[in-house]
């Protein structure tokens, strides 16, 4: 069953507010969505239990922390057998410079977002770890020049 069918307008308001600012206190959130704090808290907890709210995190300024280079890498594997795909996914989890990884269709098998302090750090990772990984056939990279939009989450009604 589609979990969206159980959401009412107030649930959608809660999700919209929390997606914009996960640091809202329950009192602030309740005020914004037109509830008193206790039922608001119960609704948030129910959304968390159902898995619709999967977590909370801070959005960090990469450049302010010294991470000045971002790259999108398109990775092609020699074999797309399920065990090889899983092995690559397991390897990706252990690479700190890989911040996002997507199995994709088309010319590449995976799209990776890499973040590094500088080009030498990035180049060392790509040459030593990524292209040297078992089953990796090709790696094509594109340097991110500027972020024009960063709006993680989903487009809520």
Describe, in plain words, how this protein is organized in 3D:
There is one protein chain. The chain is of the alpha+beta class. It folds into 2 domains: 41 residues, Winged helix-like DNA-binding domain superfamily/Winged helix DNA-binding domain (Arc Repressor Mutant, subunit A, Orthogonal Bundle), CATH 1.10.10; 81 residues, 2-Layer Sandwich (Alpha-Beta Plaits), CATH 3.30.70.920. It has 5 helices and 4 strands, in the order αααβαββαβ. The protein has a 4-stranded antiparallel sheet with strand order 2-3-1-4. Helix 1 crosses helix 2 and helix 2 crosses helix 3. It is elongated, with a radius of gyration of 20 Å.
How would you sum up this structure in a few lines?
By secondary structure, the protein is an alpha+beta fold.
Question: Which terms would index this structure?
Answer:
157 residues; alpha+beta; Arc Repressor Mutant, subunit A; Alpha-Beta Plaits; 2 domains; 4 strands
């Amino acid at each position: 069953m589609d979990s969206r069918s159980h959401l009412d307008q107030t649930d959608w308001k809660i999700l919209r507010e929390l997606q914009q600012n996960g640091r809202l206190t329950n009192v602030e959130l309740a005020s914004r969505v037109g509830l008193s704090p206790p039922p608001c808290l119960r609704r948030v907890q129910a959304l968390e239990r159902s898995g619709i709210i999967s977590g909370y995190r801070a959005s960090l300024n990469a450049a302010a922390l010294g991470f000045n280079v971002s790259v999108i890498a398109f990775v092609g594997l020699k074999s797309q057998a399920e065990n090889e795909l899983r092995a690559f996914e397991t390897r990706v989890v252990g690479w700190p410079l890989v911040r996002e990884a997507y199995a994709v269709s088309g010319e590449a098998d995976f799209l990776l977002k890499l973040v590094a302090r500088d080009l030498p750090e990035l180049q060392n990772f790509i040459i030593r770890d990524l292209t040297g990984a078992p089953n990796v056939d090709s790696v094509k990279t594109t340097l991110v020049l500027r972020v024009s939009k960063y709006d993680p989450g989903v487009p809520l009604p």
